[in-house]
Amino acid sequence: MTGSKLPALTREVATFAAIGVVSTLAYAVLFLALRTALNAEASNAVALLATAIANTAANRSLTFGVRDRAGLGRDHLGGLAAFGVALTVTSSSVAVLHAIAPTPSRFFELVVLIGANGLATVLRFVILRAWIARGRRPSRTTPHTREALS
């Protein structure tokens, strides 16, 4: 990795992390609200899907700097792939928790799910960065492309 790419990667990670914190808080609120009417697996899936859509849009624009509509569907397809990975990780964590402790408290379910979301976030960054950042259009001008074009 060249020195010129490190600051961009650092900025991407910091922005992605900030969006992740907001998404996790929204996820937790939704999960707890849904958990009163649904089981843990369904609450997880619905809360994760709702926050994944907003998360992908925010990361597309703020983390990766893609603000035009070109490639929007393709980029959200990448978000869907990341959602699938996150759903697998979080659903597996709930299944393991319920196998170990059949009636855990909602708080403990949430703690386990937030931990699983941490792992899913790392995987989501890798997937979205590969999918969205590599799909950048040559016409887009970021600080790096402006320098390269000069």
Word description of this protein:
By secondary structure, the protein is mainly α. It has one domain. It is 79% helix and 0% strand. It has helices at 5-35, 40-63, 72-100, 106-133, 143-149. Helix 1 packs antiparallel against helix 4 (106-133), helix 2 packs antiparallel against helix 3 and helix 2 packs parallel to helix 4. The longest helix has 31 residues, at 5-35. The protein is elongated, with a radius of gyration of 17 Å.
* Structural class determined from secondary elements: mainly alpha
Q: Which spans have pLDDT < 50 for at least 5 consecutive residues?
A: 137-150
Kindly report the average pLDDT value: 85
What percentage of amino acids are in beta strands?
A: under 5%
Secondary structure tally, helices: 5
Number of strands: 0
Tally of domains: 1
Alpha carbon gap, first and last residue: 21 Å
Task: Give a quick account of the main beta sheet: strands, pairing sense, barrel closure.
Answer: none
Feature tags:
single chain, mainly alpha, 150 residues
Give the SSE layout.
Blueprint: H1 5-35, H2 40-63, H3 72-100, H4 106-133, H5 143-149
Helix pairs in contact: 1-2, 1-4, 2-3, 2-4, 3-4
Task: Write a concise synopsis of the structure shown.
The chain is mainly α and 150 residues long.
